[in-house]
Design goal:
The chain has twelve helices and 13 strands. The chain is α/β, with parallel strands linked by helices.
């Protein structure tokens, strides 16, 4: 298992994890900074520098969970990961990769009030001024992220605790299982897949999108078609599992078939988008999220789509809405219509 110890600079991650290792038999500490150091040597300097923060590199977010899982194949575990992780979409991507590898994640947040954090950082004589200022600047980013962090992780306030006392609290939390992230263990397919999504609309023709807990970004409700399963039945099954909404398969109308090139985990294959029609007030009121799979749902308009959806899904949505207006399905390859020259 993974014990992810989160928290901003000055909260005591390093010293607490040093104590925690002695309290969790067989445990090993994995510092993702080692992945960042490797990428610094592997990537062209201009590519590495352009990222600004190593966590903004897709390679870092892929290699951290892959490395952790590989280490656990050689070690008894658990693996303790002390790393500040403040972006929820990056959390979803990394923790989703752990879930796909069947590795449970216990997420613990170390917290201290801002005045204490500043005092600790400023009192560190080993830090050069530039590094000290960068650590102080990180407190603001932490404060902005506290809302989702405290919902996602179990918090340990280190303000009045020694590292040993904080570690003892974490050990108890891990033993109780209260910090384990309830993420559905989605397999990451290495080959091409067929997936079926459903567009659902409200009275204003806004599109319903969902926020998965196991990968970054918002998404159309739906999922992968299982072997031997009819795509329309797969779409109906996924909508029922994700939203608690029972659809009649005859209600679905194909809008788009989009061939997506394989670019990595969870990509590659045929993507089908169906029109599920408008949801009335009673259907909207009855929507019930599967909490270990989806964080939220909402109806969205065109101004929100560029921010919520990656480019390929934004193009697919635009094509699907065009097909809905025209009353005729469209075939795409990599989001581009092949019948338009």
């Amino acid at each position: 298992m993974i014990v992810w110890v989160n928290g901003t600079c000055g909260v005591g991650k390093t010293s607490t994890v040093g104590e925690l290792r002695a309290l969790l038999p067989g445990s090993t500490v994995f510092d993702p900074d080692a992945v960042g150091a490797a990428l610094r040597g592997l990537l062209p300097p201009e590519v590495y520098a352009a990222a600004g923060d190593v966590q903004d590199l897709s390679a870092w977010r892929q290699l951290v969970p892959a490395t952790a899982v590989a280490l656990l194949s050689e070690l008894p575990g658990p693996l303790i990961v002390p790393m500040t992780l403040l972006r929820q979409d990056y959390r979803d991507e990394i923790f989703g990769a752990f879930a796909a590898s069947r590795e449970p994640v216990h997420h613990v947040l170390l917290h201290a009030e801002e005045t204490i954090l500043r005092k600790r950082i400023e009192a560190d004589p080993a830090e050069p001024p530039q590094t000290r200022q960068r650590r102080l600047d990180g407190i603001a980013a932490y404060q902005l992220a506290r809302d989702w962090l405290q919902r996602d992780a179990v918090t340990v306030d280190t303000s009045e605790l020694t590292p040993r006392q904080a570690a003892e609290q974490i050990a108890g939390i891990v033993q109780s299982g209260t910090a384990r992230c309830p993420i559905v263990e989605h397999s990451v397919h290495t080959g091409d897949t067929v997936a079926a999504a459903v567009l659902l609309f409200d009275e204003q023709d806004r599109v319903l999108l969902v926020d998965p807990v196991y990968k970054a970004g918002w998404e159309f409700p739906g999922g992968v078609v299982e072997d031997g399963e009819q795509p329309t039945l797969a779409a109906v099954r996924e909508i029922d599992e994700e939203l608690g909404l029972t659809l009649d398969p005859a209600r679905l109308r194909l809008l788009v078939a989009d061939w997506e090139p394989h670019r990595g985990p969870r990509t590659g294959g045929l993507r089908l988008v169906f029109d599920g029609g408008r949801l009335g007030p009673a259907e909207q009121a009855g929507l019930a999220l599967q909490a270990d799979e989806l964080r939220a749902w909402r109806f969205t308009g065109p101004a929100e789509w560029p921010e919520l959806l990656p480019d390929n899904k934004h193009r697919r949505l635009a094509a699907a809405l065009g097909a809905r207006d025209a009353g005729q399905p469209r075939y795409l390859e990599a989001g581009v219509r092949t019948d338009v020259r």
